[in-house]
């Protein structure tokens, strides 16, 4: 009798133990792991993840490829350009975040970026390589002036050589470094009154353009990337993940706005999906990634959110990772709202640019020039 009870109890205890272990195995341990992961990602002061958030502990690869024109003489006589991809020019990109304010669930910061040319990863390309390309500021200034100040075009015509100096050509040959960082100088001090007037107008246009800097002597300096090195980003306000780790890094506002404003909103009112600020600043992502769902991050160089889709499993320095990437959907314009109908010559019937081209007029140029000028 006693023996039977004893063994029933033993079985029961055994069953409880087995149940207990399987609970520990299947519920508790994953929960511990999950809690540990959560505690290592949410942005709390004096933690390694906060240090990692403020100073990203490794450099990213920032790879630039440039399309050169291999038949400039033919193009100048009206022929079709033959484009030739040169690069990569690889820069190591060091990023830091300057924290401005922390509240219970949110954090405000600005991002700083520092580029350093990597001759080994770029080999055999050098920053000093000469490339023949479209003279970007030349065309941009003429296009904007034509749109905003059509009556002043004849004035600009008289002042071209003083305004553009040695870069007074539609196609120029410059080094990769000049194009990306050291810049193309315009409106150098001159005694010509006509150039003075034209440059005054161009300074007005440049004041809002991110990639044209106004120098202390009043001259202008155009470069593709230097402003990123010189200026901090606009202010980000993001979630810390303290309420829900799935929200860590999720942007609430950028530049004190909850939406981008570069893209046209529907005339009947409401917000265009193209102006949505989705996801993070691309330097932080929430844990427990679901590969069936897209990730989103904003890219301030193109003033829009970018959808990243799961591509494959891979590894980084021995750590298993999942690769998400943006591909053809980034440029297909199917939403039909990354479209301004300002840039001409490569539009579809709906006023959007052809597939593969990206409209940057309001993004690098000025909003004010874009909208009030068009109005
Ligand atoms: C940068 O590129 C090099 C060479 O392709 C690669 O070995 C390295 O892992 C890359 N670094 C990052 C952070 O992606
Ligand atoms: C933002 O995310 C929503 C889904 O949450 C999506 O419908 C929309 O297209 C996204 N906008 C952009 C610009 O990616
Ligand atoms: C785009 O602009 C052109 C010229 O101003 C105009 O004729 C055309 O109707 C516009 N297209 C759209 C879709 O707004």
Automatic annotation (TrEMBL):
Location within or outside the cell: Cell membrane
Family indicated by similarity: Belongs to the CD36 family.
PANTHER family: SCAVENGER RECEPTOR CLASS B TYPE-1 SR-B1 (PTHR11923), SENSORY NEURON MEMBRANE PROTEIN 2 (PTHR11923:SF109)
GO cellular component: cytoplasm; plasma membrane
Keywords: Cell membrane, Disulfide bond, Glycoprotein, Membrane, Olfaction, Receptor, Sensory transduction, Transmembrane, Transmembrane helix
Signal peptide range in chain numbering: none
Name by which UniProt lists this protein: Sensory neuron membrane protein 2
Gene Ontology BP terms: sensory perception of smell
GO molecular function, one term: scavenger receptor activity
Entries under Pfam families matching the protein: CD36
Keyword match Disulfide bond: yes
InterPro entries: CD36_fam (IPR002159)
First-listed, main subcellular location of the protein, grouped into a coarse class: membrane
Transmembrane segments: 7-29
């Amino acid at each position: 009798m006693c023996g039977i009870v004893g063994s029933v109890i033993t079985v029961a205890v055994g069953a409880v133990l087995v149940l207990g272990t399987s609970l520990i195995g299947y519920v508790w341990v994953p929960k511990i792991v999950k809690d540990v992961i959560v505690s290592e990602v949410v942005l709390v002061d004096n933690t390694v993840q906060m240090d990692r958030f403020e100073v990203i502990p490794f450099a990213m690869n920032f790879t630039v490829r440039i399309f050169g024109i291999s038949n400039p003489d033919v193009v100048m006589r009206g022929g079709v350009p033959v484009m030739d991809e040169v690069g990569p020019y690889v820069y190591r990109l060091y990023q830091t975040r300057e924290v401005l304010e922390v509240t219970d669930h949110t954090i405000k910061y600005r991002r700083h970026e520092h580029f350093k040319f990597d001759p080994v990863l770029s080999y055999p390309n050098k920053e000093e390589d000469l490339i023949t390309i479209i003279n970007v500021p030349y065309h941009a200034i003429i296009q904007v002036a034509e749109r905003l100040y059509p009556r002043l075009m004849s004035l600009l015509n008289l002042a071209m050589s003083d305004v553009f100096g040695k870069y007074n050509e539609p196609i120029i040959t410059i080094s990769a470094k000049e194009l990306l960082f050291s810049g193309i100088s315009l409106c150098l001090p001159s005694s010509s009154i006509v150039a003075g007037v034209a440059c005054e107008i161009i300074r007005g246009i440049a004041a809002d353009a991110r990639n044209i800097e106004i120098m202390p002597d009043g001259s202008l300096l155009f470069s593709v990337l230097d402003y990123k090195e010189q200026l901090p980003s606009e202010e980000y306000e993001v979630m810390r993940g303290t309420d829900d780790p799935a929200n860590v890094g999720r942007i609430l506002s950028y530049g004190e706005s909850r939406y981008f404003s570069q893209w046209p909103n529907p005339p009947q009112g409401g917000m265009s999906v193209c102006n949505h600020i989705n996801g993070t600043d691309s330097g932080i992502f929430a844990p427990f990634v679901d590969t069936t769902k897209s990730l989103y991050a904003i890219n301030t160089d193109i003033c829009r959110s970018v959808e990243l889709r799961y591509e494959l499993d891979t590894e980084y320095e021995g750590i298993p990772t999942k690769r998400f990437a943006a591909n053809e959907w980034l440029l297909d314009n199917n939403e039909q709202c990354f479209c301004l109908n300002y840039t001409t010559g490569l539009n579809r019937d709906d006023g959007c640019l052809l597939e593969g081209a990206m409209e940057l007029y309001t993004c690098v140029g000025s909003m004010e020039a874009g909208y009030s000028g068009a109005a």
